[in-house]
Amino acid sequence: MTENEDVFLDEDEGIIELEDEEGNVTRFEFVDRAEMNGVIYYALIPADYDEEEGASEFVVLKEIETDGESMLATVDDDAEYNAVGEMFIQRFSELPELDIDDLEELDGTEE
Fold first, then answer.
1. SS3 assignment, position 5
2. Kind of pairing between the strands at 69-74 and 39-46
Protein backbone atom coordinates (compact mmCIF):
# COMPACT_ATOMS: atom_id res chain seq x y z
CA MET A 1 0.00 0.00 0.00
CA THR A 2 1.38 3.38 -0.96
CA GLU A 3 0.65 6.09 1.56
CA ASN A 4 0.66 9.72 0.62
CA GLU A 5 1.60 11.98 3.49
CA ASP A 6 2.02 15.05 1.32
CA VAL A 7 -1.52 15.59 0.09
CA PHE A 8 -2.40 19.12 -0.93
CA LEU A 9 -6.03 19.97 -1.62
CA ASP A 10 -6.99 23.25 -3.24
CA GLU A 11 -10.68 23.25 -2.37
CA ASP A 12 -11.46 26.20 -4.66
CA GLU A 13 -10.22 24.32 -7.71
CA GLY A 14 -10.91 20.78 -6.49
CA ILE A 15 -7.26 19.88 -7.15
CA ILE A 16 -5.36 17.30 -5.11
CA GLU A 17 -1.60 17.02 -5.45
CA LEU A 18 -0.13 13.63 -4.59
CA GLU A 19 3.52 12.76 -4.17
CA ASP A 20 4.73 9.24 -4.98
CA GLU A 21 7.62 7.29 -3.42
CA GLU A 22 10.13 8.88 -5.82
CA GLY A 23 8.99 12.42 -4.96
CA ASN A 24 7.07 12.98 -8.21
CA VAL A 25 4.01 15.19 -7.75
CA THR A 26 0.88 14.49 -9.79
CA ARG A 27 -2.18 16.74 -9.85
CA PHE A 28 -5.66 15.23 -9.80
CA GLU A 29 -9.15 16.69 -9.92
CA PHE A 30 -11.46 15.59 -7.14
CA VAL A 31 -14.52 13.86 -8.63
CA ASP A 32 -16.30 12.12 -5.77
CA ARG A 33 -15.92 10.77 -2.27
CA ALA A 34 -17.95 7.89 -0.84
CA GLU A 35 -17.97 5.46 2.03
CA MET A 36 -18.14 1.70 1.61
CA ASN A 37 -17.82 -0.83 4.45
CA GLY A 38 -16.67 1.89 6.82
CA VAL A 39 -13.83 3.09 4.57
CA ILE A 40 -13.82 6.44 2.75
CA TYR A 41 -12.76 6.28 -0.90
CA TYR A 42 -11.92 9.04 -3.37
CA ALA A 43 -12.42 9.06 -7.14
CA LEU A 44 -9.90 11.30 -8.91
CA ILE A 45 -9.05 12.08 -12.53
CA PRO A 46 -5.72 13.43 -13.80
CA ALA A 47 -5.87 17.23 -13.79
CA ASP A 48 -4.27 17.39 -17.25
CA TYR A 49 -6.94 15.37 -19.12
CA ASP A 50 -8.15 16.64 -22.49
CA GLU A 51 -11.47 18.38 -21.82
CA GLU A 52 -12.71 17.77 -25.38
CA GLU A 53 -12.20 14.03 -25.08
CA GLY A 54 -13.19 13.89 -21.42
CA ALA A 55 -11.63 11.76 -18.74
CA SER A 56 -11.87 8.10 -19.66
CA GLU A 57 -10.42 6.70 -16.45
CA PHE A 58 -10.40 7.57 -12.80
CA VAL A 59 -8.16 6.66 -9.89
CA VAL A 60 -9.50 5.22 -6.64
CA LEU A 61 -7.69 5.94 -3.38
CA LYS A 62 -8.75 5.24 0.17
CA GLU A 63 -8.40 7.27 3.31
CA ILE A 64 -6.36 5.67 6.05
CA GLU A 65 -5.18 6.91 9.41
CA THR A 66 -1.53 6.67 10.38
CA ASP A 67 -0.23 8.12 13.63
CA GLY A 68 -3.47 10.04 14.06
CA GLU A 69 -3.28 11.68 10.62
CA SER A 70 -5.50 10.99 7.61
CA MET A 71 -3.70 10.03 4.42
CA LEU A 72 -4.65 8.72 1.00
CA ALA A 73 -3.42 5.29 0.00
CA THR A 74 -3.65 3.04 -3.01
CA VAL A 75 -6.10 0.16 -3.00
CA ASP A 76 -3.91 -2.89 -3.52
CA ASP A 77 -6.58 -5.60 -3.27
CA ASP A 78 -8.06 -6.20 -6.74
CA ALA A 79 -11.47 -7.29 -5.43
CA GLU A 80 -11.72 -4.21 -3.20
CA TYR A 81 -10.59 -1.92 -6.04
CA ASN A 82 -13.11 -3.41 -8.47
CA ALA A 83 -15.98 -3.20 -5.95
CA VAL A 84 -15.23 0.44 -5.17
CA GLY A 85 -14.77 1.26 -8.86
CA GLU A 86 -18.18 -0.26 -9.62
CA MET A 87 -19.71 1.76 -6.78
CA PHE A 88 -18.35 5.00 -8.25
CA ILE A 89 -19.47 4.05 -11.77
CA GLN A 90 -22.98 3.46 -10.40
CA ARG A 91 -22.90 6.82 -8.60
CA PHE A 92 -21.72 8.59 -11.77
CA SER A 93 -24.47 6.96 -13.84
CA GLU A 94 -27.10 8.34 -11.45
CA LEU A 95 -25.96 11.95 -11.87
CA PRO A 96 -28.30 14.07 -13.97
CA GLU A 97 -26.97 15.09 -17.35
CA LEU A 98 -26.67 18.84 -17.85
CA ASP A 99 -26.87 20.41 -21.26
CA ILE A 100 -25.47 23.80 -22.23
CA ASP A 101 -28.81 25.56 -21.51
CA ASP A 102 -28.76 24.23 -17.95
CA LEU A 103 -25.20 25.47 -17.46
CA GLU A 104 -26.03 28.92 -18.81
CA GLU A 105 -29.03 29.12 -16.50
CA LEU A 106 -26.90 28.17 -13.50
CA ASP A 107 -24.22 30.64 -14.53
CA GLY A 108 -26.77 33.40 -15.09
CA THR A 109 -25.69 33.93 -18.69
CA GLU A 110 -27.64 33.36 -21.85
CA GLU A 111 -26.53 33.65 -25.45
1. coil
2. unpaired
